[in-house]
Amino acid sequence: MRDDDARHETGGLTPFRDPLRIPPVLRPGRGGRGEDITVELEARSVRLHSQMPPSLTWTYDGHFPGPTIEVRRGQRVRVSWANRIEGPYPLAAGTAPLTVDGEPSTAQPGRGPDFIETKEVADLPAWSVTHLHGAVTGGGNDGWTENAVGVGDAQLSEYPNDQRSAMLWYHDHALNITRWNVLAGLVGVYLVRDEEEQALRLPSGEYEIPLVLTDRNFETDADGRPTGEVLHKVPRLSDPDPESGEPVVTIPFSGPYTLVNGVVWPHLEVEPRWYRFRLLNAANARVFDLALVDEDGELVQGVVHQIGSDGGLLPAPVPVDFDEGLPRLTIAPAERMDLLVDFGALRGRRLRLVNAPADAERPGDPARNVPFPQVMEFRVDRRPVRDRFVLPPVISSSFRRLTHDVPHRHRLVVLTPPGTVGGAGHPEIWEMVEVPEDSVTLGSDGVIQLTDAEGTTRTYRRVARTFDDTLAIRIAEGDHEQWSFLNLGGPTHPMHIHLTAFQLLGREPYLTEGFSPELGGTTSPVAFDASPGAGIPLAPNEQGWKDVVTVPAGQMVNVLGPYEGAQGRFMYHCHLLEHEDMGMMRPFAVLPREVMVFDHHSPDGGHGEH
Fold first, then answer.
1. How far is CA 470 from the centre of its chain?
2. Which of 1, 344, 478, 507 is least crowded, fewest Cβ atoms below 10 Å from its Cβ?
3. What is the Rg, in whole angstroms, of the alpha carbon atoms belonging to the chain?
4. What mean pLDDT value characterizes the chain?
5. This prediction's pTM
6. CA dist 47 to 110, 183, 585, Å?
7. Please, which residues bridge with residue 544 across strands?
């Protein structure tokens, strides 16, 4: 295919033209001592593709993504996140119709017809707070969403790093505007190392590479070529409100261009040997369904193995054997995957990582639309090399599976469908507390009945639904808790809990027809689906430590984890950033056990220890 033809078919840019950029590595401290470091937030012009003008980007230390910060377990690090951003806001935001001539307009390059710009976004200040996602650190260091700082100020955070080896990441978390600040470029990788990881002798140095996935949309010129101006274009689901002029928006951002480490569709020269890739989905909302294909588009089998997830190493390698009839390697926003790839038998080949949803027609989830499936290309050298690495059968010998035998408390969190009464068109997080049936009016707003797998029906009352509602969840430090996320309808929500890493206990199917969005409650119990074939087994790669879990409609997902190592006020939320900004975020607090004795007003929904 000629270069001009390739550009026409891929939105004006040639795929795999530019090399992958690898962020610099920042290792604070020497000799095991912690050290104060400063990371500056700066505005820079960054070229995201060589055929496109530079894009105004917000960066950490001048890099997008920011430098990879690497620490050792137990090494205490203090970071000054210094806001030095100057100049205008780096993107244009607005809405467009969900479809134009039958095509999803918001996933196509440029503003397109009927684009309505949100002018107030251009007036936003550089107001930012950095959250170290996955960190076990005190609430005052966690990047509380309202504690953002302006230009000339600095956020001071301390990270004990007393946690297992894992890939964390840092990103903006400013209240109401996280979706735009992250899209502006404020993301970076943070690696914690420990002795267990070191003993595995995994590929390292130039053979260990972070792959940070993001997606973007760009304004186009009169010839349809991208100009480099970043657009936050989201679907408009209704006409603008006649009073406020603002449309109701519930579907998150999804851009047509995929970037890896800040480059649109890059390539990477690799040797025919094992590599370790630290994969992060840092997109606002895009779920990537990844597959590895060869020059002819055929799936490549047997070379990819997952050895870790969000919270650290898996107990054993999980082979990723792509197959036409099976789901791809699916990674939702904020999830991480630790991958080993063996290029040893692929000398001289060109392999492509593509975003190829096995279920692109999934209803209710337009973010799945993929106009351009390209992600990146691997170019394997022809020259043989000597590689001594052998994939070990055991990855984490320290891993222990959590079970119901661990004393813990239960909490129910309901995720409501868009359009539920009182939600202003947006999905919400409802925290529920069990109550006697005769203490509430059935069929009323905020009252839900639930029939579980044992046939027991319980009645729940809503105690919180918005970010500013009462603090309803208080936890004694050191306790384990089971949180059950029940999605009553709408899109899949990747739910993230700050502070803790948890394990999935199970995914349960539920029949949700008994919930009435118009009433905001159940007219008949939401019931466990016991029909043949309805069971949902856990995937092998989600049976390790996690801090993000996907919750599809009609599922109750049960997670169990410890709340230890830090105290203070934290958050949990949907990691579709538009949902987070639109209200799908709630606080919780972890207190010393001795303080909990005097907690006399806690509508926290705890059902006792089990």
1. 26
2. 1
3. 24
4. 92
5. 0.95
6. 18, 15, 34
7. none
The predicted structure's pLDDT at residue 457: 98
CA distances from 604 to 151, 408, 470, 483 (A): 38, 14, 10, 12
Query: Which phi and psi (to 5°) does residue 310 adopt?
Result: -50, -50
| Count of all residues that appear for the chain in the document | 610
Give the pLDDT confidence of 79-118 residue by residue, as tens digits. Answer: 999 999 999 999 999 998 877 666 667 888 999 888 999 9
Task: Indicate left, alpha or beta for 335 from its phi (over 0: left) and psi (-120 to 50: alpha).
Answer: beta
Interatomic CA distance for residues 160 and 138, integer angstroms:
9
Q: Which residues pair with 320 in a beta bridge?
A: 304
Domain 3-380, what fold?
Immunoglobulin-like (2.60.40)
Per-residue pLDDT tens over the stretch 210-266: 999 999 999 999 999 999 999 999 988 776 666 665 556 668 999 999 999 999 999
Please answer whether residues 213 and 282 qualify as being in contact, where contact means their C-beta atoms are separated by less than 8 angstroms.
yes
pLDDT(149) > 80? yes
Q: In the structure encoding, which two tokens stand for residue 413, read together? A: 């969190």
Taking the CA of residue 190 as centre, how many other CA atoms within 13 Å lie in the half-sphere pointing to its CB?
A: 23
Q: Do the domains 408-596 and 3-380 match in fold?
A: yes
- Tell the burial category of 5 from Cβ atoms under 10 Å away from its Cβ (0-12, 13-18, 19+): exposed
Q: What is the C-alpha end-to-end distance of the chain, expressed in Å?
A: 63
Q: Which CATH number fits domain 408-596: 2.60.40.420, 3.40.190.10, 2.10.270.10, 1.20.1250.20?
A: 2.60.40.420
Domain parsing of the chain, residue ranges: 3-380, 408-596
60 vs 35 pLDDT, higher one = 60
Q: What CA dihedral angle connects 552, 463, 574 and 171, to 10 degrees?
A: -160
Distance of alpha carbon 510 from alpha carbon 512, whole angstroms: 6
- pLDDT band per the 50, 70, 90 thresholds, residue 360: very low
